[in-house]
Amino acid sequence: MLEHTFIHIPGIGPKTEQHLWRKGILTWEDFLSHPRKVFSSSRDAFIRRELEATLEHRNDLHFFVNRLPATDLWRIYDAFKEQAVFLDIETSGGYLGMDEITVIGLYDGQKVQTFVNGRNLEDFEEAIASYSMVITFNGSCFDLPYLKRWFRHLSLPPAHIDLRFVLKKMGLRGGLKAIEEQVGLSRDPKVMGLNGFDAVLLWQDYQCGNVSALERLILYNTMDIVQLKPLMELSAREMKNRLMIFYP
Questions:
Q1: Do 37 and 144 have their domain in common?
Q2: Residue 9 carries which DSSP code?
Q3: What is the mean pLDDT of residues 100-129?
Q4: Is the same domain home to 50 and 105?
């Protein structure tokens, strides 16, 4: 989708982008090779300069993060997915700022990394530094604020895609588990039906000496992050199809 994107250029919004597509200008190269001016001479020249800079920086994730609206960062996923990691946290469920992060899960599409409070939670900062894009479900409101409060000097990846809001644009609402059911994703039977409150209870059980409760909590967290990948891929595919349905 990224090569079809024009809204990163100052002065071009969704309507102008659609206007370009209707003219058969579907990619950056299409505009640059177009035999006639599309806009006024000055605006056309400005857009050409911007697109030449875009081609020069086409492999630079930061270039697009700084220019695209947060709600449209899903467009960069396919181009930069090798730099992406899926993230989810669990907490102790306390009140008035007394709650703790209990488990953090990272999944890069191949490998799962789990960080547990009291074991290796402090290793998370080094691990997350390896990625340039983080993908969450409701991370804007929950996961990332918690992480920033817990790790005072944390440096998060520059790009963040919150799937909750992308999926909402597609008409998929509710919590993560409800959306998984809507699109036909299933979970490991050992954690089927568990929710965030159950995760709190599992941590409490582990704190009382039940090691198997921690194993189940980790599996629950792992399912949360692993399921984000097919949801991200579905989102990128469907959002592109919806935008470009009338264009070849």
A1: no
A2: S
A3: 98
A4: no
